Amino acid sequence: MTKTSGGSPSGTRRGEIAGIPTRYIGIGVIVVLAVWFLFANLEKVKIQFWVFTVTCPLWIALLATLLAGTALGWLLKGRRTR
Question: How confident is the model over 26-49, as a mean pLDDT?
Answer without folding.
Answer: 88
